[in-house]
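Today's session is about reading a structure prediction critically. Students often jump straight to the picture, but the first step is always the sequence itself: look for stretches that repeat, for charged clusters, for runs of hydrophobic residues. Only then move on to the predicted structure, which in these notes is written as discrete structure tokens rather than atom positions. Here is the chain we will use throughout the hour.
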Amino acid sequence: MSIQIFGLPVSRGVAIGRAVLIASSRVDVPHVFIDPSLIDEEIVRLLTARDVVADEFETLKHDLPPDAPAELAALLDVHQMLLQDEALIGAAADWIRQRHYNAEWAVSAQLEVLARQFDEMEDAYIRERKADLEQVVERLLRSLSRGLPSAVPDPSRAGARDFGGDEPLVLVAGDIAPADMLSFKRSVFTGFVTDVGGKTSHTAIVARSMDIPAVVGARQASHLIRQDDCIIIDGDAGLVIVDPSPIVLEEYRFRQRQSELERGRLARLRHTPAVTLDGERVELLANIEMPEDGPVALEAGAVGVGLFRSEFLFMNRGGDLPDEEEQYEAYRSAVDAMKGLPVTIRTVDIGADKPLEGLSSSELRHESVLNPALGLRAIRWSLSEPSMFRRQLRALLRAAVHGPVKILIPMLASQNEIRQTMENIAHVRRQLTESGKPFGDVQLGAMIEVPAAALTLPMFLRYFDFVSIGTNDLIQYTLAIDRADEAVAHLYDPWHPAVLHLISTTIAQARAAGRGVSVCGEMAGDPAFTELLLAMGLRSFSMHPSQIASVKQRVLRADTRRLAPLVDAVIQSEEPEVTCGELFASLGTPQHADRLARAQQLPTFHQAQ
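Below is the predicted structure for this chain, in token form.
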């Protein structure tokens, strides 16, 4: 029977495929697609781990004291039986053969299947055996973690059909860690569904960067969907359909074909200069996570990198932070890849939804539990770890020898933080000079993502060459909501008058002072905001490469002379989205009329539920 699950639409389009569930586990499970040539080797890992655990059970049973209750020996026998059952090990081996999962992933996937079978048992005693199964699997996963690691494939050489079999796959999870998202970024998944998250959660951002449909905040999706279920992800409506009827399936396949045609049409704009109808040149830059994303940005028509999120060099490393040479090579690689175009690199921004494992700072770990969005993150952490911060700054300055580099400092809020940042930069310049290492000139920029920074912008403009508005955090801090929390995700509102006022005044003040200003948050890549941001005077947008063509289409159709007079009315309105739609519709173009229709609907998360 078909079921529908509602969540938040965060990446548009339609995905149809078989569900791949990432089950929650008390043991951290790596999720890796194994090269087909290594399948037999991975199955040997699985069987070896099983034999190790079987020996552990036998040893435990042998070492039981004579006066031990008979139930203990019986329990060990039950665990041994579960361990040897083909429904666990044999089926896990099938996951490895058919989907090319690594052994840990295969075991956790099969646990999810078996656990649901136990839950459906009518006999209460049998249902309780699920706890025994979970204990066996936990021991098996720990045994796998102590053995040889899986052979990790090179995703840059892997085609979409090299891993996971031939059928399209969609990923379903309670949540997806940033480290997993990074490894999944070039994998076979054609869509994502998560129980938690908001429109600017990390899962949503990466899904948009991959240009694949995604629905987050779908509450019980990972419990309602089973491994291998056929599901449809409607990224436009925030809808997940499980086991759709043939008629519904065909309708969505038609929509998929239409989307592909539209992408093809937009792709023709790739190398067209972004110039408005009245001759205003607009800079469309790319947001990237890793150096190898550079060619993708160029292919999409980006004229530079407006945001290189350097924190991804620090993640998924077990706390082993990159040294200066490793960072220098990574930044140099990004600069070389952009072939002389400017590259803006943000200093490490960890914390909140991007935790860093294995940190020495106990305070960071403490804050991440209490309130990660307001804790020791971004520049606050960098200033608390000066040796790490200076190591990164040295690498950045050295990379500037190879091409135009801009350094962007995240989450600045006060003059004291600005002064400490400048002192650290001056210190590393002296170090490089004394050591004889060449370094280049860089422009320095500040992220405007804390309301305090936007409200004291003239002070920032005295110190920095440019500012970049991080709308994701600026919205959450202005509205006092956690943007990654699905319980309040419906309150995340980029159209809020306070948000638009802060953005508009920041753009106006920066332009008046002769400083560069860009928007690098998700609003920059959302075509619904393109004309409004142009009307505010913005001429530099930075977004995921997949979003450039859609925004460029809006730029090419815009006339900033007609748009600019409308800004004040939108900002002063109590319902800016509706007002914006009405005013832009008065200009007579179809896309403005479409926006008015969407604005008047104003769907909310609760309505969707």
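Discussion point for the tutorial: Residues 152-164, 360-369, 600-609 have pLDDT under 50 and may be disordered.
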